[in-house]
TrEMBL record:
CDD domains: TM_PBP2. It comes from the Bacteria. SUPFAM superfamilies: MetI-like. This is Spermidine/putrescine transport system permease protein.
Length: 274
């Protein structure tokens, strides 16, 4: 019989990691949020966050994160479903995941060349008679590049949920006379909802704090919470206000994780009755 008294010793590295790289950074952010640019203790940073400027910034961040998540889900769900039906699904899945291994900055610069005035996108538009267009530094380019970058993170959890689904349930639905749409709406989608929730977490949360893409692709015409934090820390050197925005960003992330958390309270999961 294993001695459970020695178990906490195996958890020491885990607790140290959490303390040093999760709790300590958050504590420092909260600490600096109570100081102004001159180093004086103040609550003005929290008051300023609820001003019209930062409220509009927050709403804008949520709106763009929502659009990115929706378009990513629209592309990722049918792609993941198609992958589960292919013969070499693991190979296709690997080909989709491989681009996520490439450095984000490299992919961003690649799209600068693609969407530039003399890039392939504008050459194509010119060839079909539309003419050159300003594609860079627009909402379209920002959302398009963001969706491209986040697609693998949405496909993977949805694919795992769909791949684990019991095909007998789909066959039973069709045998009972359900149409393809009814089968999807009443059987497939509910059983794969945990994968969708995980994908939303993996896309919506980091989309709130984007700043590299907003700089290079949107040309600072799109300002998110991540961009605001970067400006406060690196441009205005107001660490207090930057930390305050970061505190609220962490709170938003926690709320989103709670709203999209997986709740398996009985019922059916992956085709098995609990």
């Amino acid at each position: 019989m294993r001695n459970n008294s020695s178990r906490p010793f195996y958890l020491i590295p885990y607790y140290l990691w959490i303390a040093l790289f999760v709790i300590a950074p958050i504590a420092l952010i909260v600490y600096y949020s109570f100081f102004d640019i001159s180093g004086n203790l103040t609550f003005d940073n929290y008051k300023n966050f609820f001003s019209s400027v930062y409220l509009r910034l927050t709403l804008s961040s949520f709106w763009y994160a929502f659009l990115i998540t929706v378009f990513t889900l629209i592309v990722a769900y049918p792609t993941a479903y198609w992958l589960t039906k292919t013969k070499h699904k693991q190979l296709w899945l690997l080909l989709i995941i491989i681009p996520s291994w490439i450095n984000l900055l490299l992919k961003t610069y690649a799209f600068i060349g693609i969407f530039g005035l003399y890039g392939p996108a504008n050459r194509f538009l010119k060839a079909i008679g539309i003419g050159e267009q300003q594609i860079l530094f627009t909402d379209f380019s920002f959302i398009f590049v963001s969706v491209y970058i986040f697609i693998p993170f949405m496909i993977l959890p949805i694919f795992n949920s769909l791949d684990k689904m019991n095909p007998a349930l789909i066959d039973a639905s069709r045998d009972l006379g359900a149409s393809s749409w009814v089968t999807f709406r009443r059987v497939i989608f509910p059983l794969a909802i945990n994968g969708v929730k995980s994908g939303i977490q993996a896309v919506f949360i980091p989309a709130l704090s984007l700043f590299v893409i907003t700089r290079l692709i949107a040309g600072n015409k799109v300002i998110t919470l991540g961009t605001a934090i970067e400006q406060q820390f690196l441009v205005t050197q107001n660490w207090g206000m930057g930390s305050t925005i970061a505190v609220f960003l962490i709170l938003f992330m926690i709320i989103i994780m709670m709203l999209t958390g997986q709740r398996d309270k009985g019922g059916m999961a992956n085709g098995k009755i609990k």
